[in-house]
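Reviewers of the previous submission asked for a worked example of the structure-prediction workflow described in the proposal, so we include one complete record here. The input consisted solely of the amino acid sequence. No template or homolog information was supplied to the procedure at any stage.
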Amino acid sequence: MTNIFILGTSRTGKSTLTKKIEKEFPYFKTIPLDFIINAYQKTFSDKKIGYSKEYLPDNKLSLFIKNLIYEFRKHNDTLFIIEGDSILPEDYHQHFDEEQNICFFLINTSTPEQKVQDCRKYDRTNDWSSRRTDQELLKHFEEEEKIQKIIIEQVRKYHYETIDVANNRNETLNMLYEKIKKKLQNL
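From that input alone, the workflow returned the following structure tokens.
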């Protein structure tokens, strides 16, 4: 069993990379963590899931995803791409078998101001960031800096691979795609 985890901070190309993988390897089914979080929070408004700053210590998303995958695997051989920004390296380490999965954490070490400019450059009409003002985006990226520092610290601790898309985003994503493709072909 090999699932692919494409995790990390927002607006780093996780969805773009996922779509490329799905196109060449259509037997993978994607679990977009944003969809899970939104549906869960609309259903159970008193329960928090994901890793916003208010409930980072109580995030149970990785355990939920582990159990979801387990339930699917009991009935079929579905392989997944888990894509999103709410599983920290420590959570991944605790809940997933590193030998059985491919995992990358994407980050963007640009300044929050540069990230806002990049959003405006790369935004599509259905991207959440296209519906935010520049001020709202700036605040989001400033707050996310704290989470990114945690990701970088935990990636080092657990020896995971982190990919910084701050420079040459498209080239970096293409390089990562080729790396994932090679790993899948060697299985």
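The chain has a mean pLDDT of 90. We consider this example representative of the routine output the project will generate in years two and three.
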